Amino acid sequence: MVFYTVNQVTTYIRESFESDILLSDLYVSGEISNLRRSASGHAYFTLKDDSALLNCVMFRGQQGSDVLEDGSAVSTHGRISFYEPRGSTDFIVDLVMPEGTGALSLEFEKLRAQLELEGLFDESRKRSLPEFPKVIGVVTSVSGAVLHDITTVITRRYPLVDILVSPTLVQGDSAPENIVQAINDLNVDGRSDVIVVARGGGSLEELWAFNDERVVRSIYGSKIPVVSAIGHETDFTISDFVADLRAPTPSAAAEMIVPNVTNLKRHLLELENQMNNIMESNLESVQADIEIINGDLTRLLPDIEIFRRSIDDMNREGDTFFQHMINMLSVRVDSADKQLSTLDPTATLRRGFTVVQDDRGSVVSSSKSVREGKIYSLVFADGISRVQSADKKI
């Protein structure tokens, strides 16, 4: 016989609850009673039916806490937990909706809340669509009317774009995997500027493939902007929340992702008219400036003529002044030349005078300097003669 401690037993019970697939992901419907809210915002209540009750805890911030009210019938989602210190079993509720919502709606809200908490729906991460796409990828069934509606609208509005279809199932058990593959194929191909994920209207069950977490995460992970166009305007899927843009219908999506070529032509015509008006206005402005300049030149012509005459007068006066200066300088040069000629020793020699030099080349200017027997040079205008003094004095 083996005895276990209380802690061992309670731990085993808790771990058994946590590892149980059913008890860890449980949908329960019933009537609320004994509702009590704590100061911290947590809610404690009992969920009961005709034959049993379940103690429930709903922590603050969980979706649907505003629905809680004594006596109200609700559908809930949560997990069974065993609280060891008290030895009690509690149903930890994370989602509450009014009864009659159904399991799919509960699952929808549960997944939506989870993905929203992860940030998959943040507006800050959503991308704008290209204004003039060249290629549009379409993920839809090739057998339905949706593809025809999309191609008709796009061709009518903007025939310049190419449409690349990535076919897929849009409902049934295999649809989620098909849709994910179709989106991935367009991303690998890389030609599309935008992807439209589309299908026609239907019930919640028929649209359920677009609430599949795999599809939602595929849209989130797409490198190419995604437009969701699923069902009618009143139909919402989780794919709508994660897409970069939600269109109310497939036809509306086609209108939203391409411009209207008629409007483009009208806009181009308006731009052309604006450019013509600007050019005409600029031309008129330039012509006005030219007229102003011409007027200024006309007014300046007399002043220019006076200035030109003044320059001519200054040129003439300058010529006269410089000619006068040249004449004066010529007279001075002639006078200086005559003075130089007068002072030139050779001129004196040409008049019959001679210069007597001793043997050292010094000029003998007095007879007292003459010595008997010495050789002297007589410098004439046309040459030099050497003589010897015969007598000191005559």
Which helices and strands, and how do they pair?
Elements: H1 6-19, E1 26-37, E2 43-48, E3 53-58, E4 73-83, E5 88-98, H2 103-118, E6 135-140, H3 145-157, E7 162-167, H4 175-189, E8 194-199, H5 213-221, E9 226-230, H6 238-242, E10 245-246, H7 250-257, H8 261-343, H9 345-350, E11 355-357, E12 375-380, E13 383-388
Parallel strand pairs: 3-5, 6-7, 6-8, 8-9, 9-10
Antiparallel strand pairs: 1-2, 1-4, 2-3, 4-5, 11-12, 12-13
Summarize the structure.
The chain has nine helices and 13 strands. It folds into four domains: 6-118, OB fold (Dihydrolipoamide Acetyltransferase, E2P), CATH 2.40.50; 130-259, 3-Layer(aba) Sandwich (Rossmann fold), CATH 3.40.50.10550; 270-334; 348-388, no CATH class. The radius of gyration is 59 Å and the shape is elongated.
Describe the protein's architecture and organization.
By secondary structure, the protein is an alpha/beta fold. It folds into 4 domains: 6-118, OB fold (Dihydrolipoamide Acetyltransferase, E2P), CATH 2.40.50; 130-259, Rossmann fold; 270-334; 348-388, no CATH class. It has 9 helices and 13 strands. The chain has helices spanning 6-19, 103-118, 145-157, 175-189, 213-221, 238-242, 250-257, 261-343, 345-350; strands at 26-37, 43-48, 53-58, 73-83, 88-98, 135-140, 162-167, 194-199, 226-230, 245-246, 355-357, 375-380, 383-388. Strands 1-2-3-5-4 form a 5-stranded mixed β-barrel. Strands 7-6-8-9-10 form a 5-stranded parallel β-sheet. Strand 6 (135-140), helix 3 (145-157) and strand 7 form a beta-alpha-beta unit. The longest helix is centred in the C-terminal third of the chain and has 83 residues, at 261-343. The N and C termini lie far apart (186 Å). 20% of the residues are buried.
